[in-house]
Amino acid sequence: MLQKRDVDAECDDFRINVVGQVAEVVPRNISEVAQTYQRRAGMNPTESLWLEYALDVLTRGGGAMNCCVSGQTDRISRWPGYLGPDYASGRVLLVGAVHNEADMDATPEVPAIGDGAVEWINGHRSDSDYLAMLRVEYPRAINFWCRNGGGVFRKFTEIRAALGVSLGQCAISNIAKCTAVRGSKKYCESISACPLRFPLTDLIALLDPVIAFIACNDTNARIPGVGSTSTRRVYRFQQLNSLEYATKRRREVWLREAADFYRTAIKRPRAAI
Ligand SMILES: [Zn+2]
User: Fold this and answer.
1) How far, in Å, is the centroid of ligand 1 from the Cα of 158?
2) How close is the Cα of 71 to the center of ligand 1, in Å?
3) Distance, CA 178 to ligand 1 centroid (Å)?
4) pTM for this one?
5) For ligand 1, a single-atom ion, which residues have Cβ within 5 Å?
6) Tens digits of per-residue pLDDT, 141-160?
């Protein structure tokens, strides 16, 4: 998926061409989308595309037990994230920085999410069962992180409240798909290394969010090409103090603007697939 090919002028969908560090969104051949439908029977278009992305994250290179920073691990170390069942009506993308090892170790739902992913990529769990498992376990894990974690999910909850959307209307991911091993240096390395394999622009192109929020303090985060357009707003804020990354605007300022934009923009349908 999302490979560099010639542009087909007749299609409605898109793909990504990566030119250096800049990703451009270009039309995608409709037959490619039709093939994805066939592989993902019973899934809606966004679910089909997201499952292809998740499979890529879980299987590429060293597979699910491989981490960009620490190499081979003895347990699953890459995480595609979450796609809500009502994403099509919300189209909100929430992006954290890195999966924190201490938080992951402490989260009761993580073993089930990891086991479910391994069963799915090995063909022992169907697409619909994998998505259903994520949609049960992730909300519970997020509830745990809101109570016990570093606070980013509390901020995402407040953002959702300002926009008036449920968790089920959102997709969630991290800049780095890997779990960063303990230590702040590794945390920085993950944010820099992992997006070389899994650019955030790929996920944005396939999910076509109306609005995206990226929580990351780190200047090393490799997210080139991720920015606002005429139909999409991207807000990056510092997780520790909620200041907008580039402008240093306070959260009440940028979140009010974001909510105003979202209320108007969500009424526009996404391009037909
Ligand atoms: Zn990685």
Assistant:
1) 28
2) 9
3) 4
4) 0.84
5) 68, 178, 194
6) 999 999 987 789 999 999 99
Q: Measure the CA–CA gap between 176 and 23, rounded to whole angstroms.
A: 17
Q: How confident is the model at residue 2 (pLDDT cuts 50, 70, 90)?
A: very low
Q: Which one, of 143, 121, 139, lies nearest residue 130 by Cα? A: 121
